[in-house]
Amino acid sequence: MKLFIRNTCVRFIYTNDNTNRLHIRAILCHTYHLALHDYYNQARDLILMIFIQHTIYLADISTQILYNRTMVQLGLCVFRF
């Protein structure tokens, strides 16, 4: 049930977001969640799909912090994988 709710919320943000900020934050949160639960391949593919690593310096500070936390969690996931 929780997985269904999360997927529904993320899909809603992906399709209805007019600002790029919410879209990026939703992808980062989704990637963080996947990495936290050891879904390395899905998390890696999702983070590489958006090419955020080239433009993260243009984002606001809270999004940059979320990006850094997501990358650390993805790195930890690699060692658990």
UniProtKB/TrEMBL annotation:
Residues 9-80 form the Eukaryotic translation initiation factor 3 subunit C N-terminal domain. It comes from the Eukaryota. InterPro entries: EIF3C, EIF3C_N_dom. Pfam families: eIF-3c_N. One of its GO terms (molecular function) is translation initiation factor activity. The keyword Cytoplasm applies. Keywords: Cytoplasm, Initiation factor, Protein biosynthesis. GO terms for cellular component: eukaryotic translation initiation factor 3 complex. This is Eukaryotic translation initiation factor 3 subunit C N-terminal domain-containing protein. It comes from Rotaria magnacalcarata.
